[in-house]
Known about the structure:
By secondary structure, the chain is mainly α. It contains 19 helices and four strands. The longest helix has 46 residues.
Amino acid sequence: MQSSNALEKGINQFVEIMISTLQIYILCLMSLVLCVDIFLSFLNECSARRRMKSMPEELGGLMDMVTWEKSSNYLISKTKLSYLQKIISFAFISYLLIHGLPVYMNSLLISSNLGALGISFWGGLLVTILSLPSLFFDWIQQFVIEEKFGFNTSSGGLWVTDKIKEITLMLFFSFFIFSILTFSYDLLIDWFPKLWWIFSFFIFFLIQIVILFLAPRLILPLFNKLTPLEDEELAQLLTSLCRKRGFELSKIEVMDGSKRSSHSNAFFTGFGKARRIIFYDTLLEQLSHKQIESVLAHEIGHYKLNHLPKRLLLSCLFGVVFFGLLDYSMHSSFLFEQLQLDPNLVGNLVPVILYFMIFGSCLTYWFSFLSNYYSRKHEFEADAFAVNSVGGWTDLSSALRIMHVKNLSYPSPHPLYALFNHSHPSLLERELKMKAALIKPN
């Protein structure tokens, strides 16, 4: 009996030393997010399995039964891989919370006489290292799942080259961001000891805008070749649409997406007069001119309806809250103690930023449905704009249907899964809204 009590006492003392109350709370919240996330994915997978042999009547005509089963299996394969990835990620992050980060921070930042640049470099290096485990799953996704379903067109050498570039860029930008935040804090804390975080946020926000502007010009060409649209008839049609809707467009370019995947897409880059539309070469092969025009009209709708400024404003509000929490947290000796960080680190930005980056998703996950709600609302509005711009809904609808079939996109997700995970409405939801949009002028 005495030995049993001594063992229990020893275990309790070990747990008390190794895991603080705050760490237990964070672990519980992480576990809850993991369980909910896996449960929603399981619901979606079960729904796909149940419907695999009988496509819903409302989807009749979208795809044949062979393609429907292939689309269902594609979803199921990706979901199975996600289970493993989520569980391994949970175990890895749990280790970081309890042991990895405290040891790294205490041994590196306390034992070494690092200046602002040194601290920023090691912080950026840690962020980069934390991304490395995902490489295994990226490889499986690309060369097992995408290969199995006929999407992969990349070689092993190209994939490795891409990842080296991505890791290098991640290290550079992580170091750059940490440096900006550290230097802005050192500069502003003497002038505005109570409000430094507000000024620091606006500096950071402006830098983000500059990066968004420069990234398509400097980063995208590192991975893909961009060429002018050679189809003059299509270029004239798209230019005419832009002129009709009062939308300035500097370039229409084609990206060689087919050298990595047969998936198709299109997107805008740049701001103001420097805006340009980039089409995947695969998309141009799949759609007719009128369908491509409707896709461009949808993207123009996002700009004309000010969706980007609205999202930037929302991001700005969340950013202010984040920097306010950053200011409070970095001066909280209780928080550093609970995270098992050396008291001498109190007032240091880097540890707090890292903890927010790694564990902040435990909180933001519960607001993802709100973000997705507004994103889906914007998609409906952009669809309505496109429908009234081209004078009908059939071209956009047929374009979406072709992209669904070619990309094996599952068109009927479970509602609860879509609520937390889908930023775009389902195909049927979009078509119903498009039909109604014909009687509503922009």
